[in-house]
Amino acid sequence: MSKKLAIIIMFIALGGGAIAYTANQNNNDSSNVTSTSSTSFAETPTNEAEAETVAGSGSYVEYSETALASAEGQKVLFFHAPWCSQCRSIEQGIKSQGVPEGFTIIKVDYDSNQDLRAKYGVKLQTTFVKLDDNNDKIDDFVAYSEPTFEAVKRDYL
Fold this sequence. Notes:
It is built from five helices and seven strands. It has helices spanning 3-28, 65-70, 85-97, 114-120, 149-155; strands spanning 34-36, 41-43, 59-62, 74-80, 103-109, 127-131, 137-142. A seven-stranded mixed beta sheet has the order 2-1-3-5-4-6-7, with helices on one face. The protein starts with a helix and ends with a helix. Mean pLDDT is 78; it is low at 16-56.
């Protein structure tokens, strides 16, 4: 086998592996609507109409037009990327600690929602954006340097 052919086969194999890995990661990403309380995390059905919020707690939901329109309390977009370790750390805190009462945190995929990023001026994953009742930006907070939900609650919520 020639050296060129071996190199071409190697690139094809690596590319196929990368595509398979990406497809697997996308399949593993949860699109569940979830609710949290201050002490536990409970998954609810993906059908937003069936989602229930634990009494006295906020909500953490996946972004959709419907989720944004039906969000209760103070709406906060969380621009999250599944490959971002800081985002995963913050999300782990959200799920384990729960969202404070009166807030709905809406998880927005940083990579696939470029129009929302442009609309709200988001330049970095781990960005939180508070919205008013008309879904206009009130302000934002980037939790990249201290990627914990404690920091988000302390400094922003």
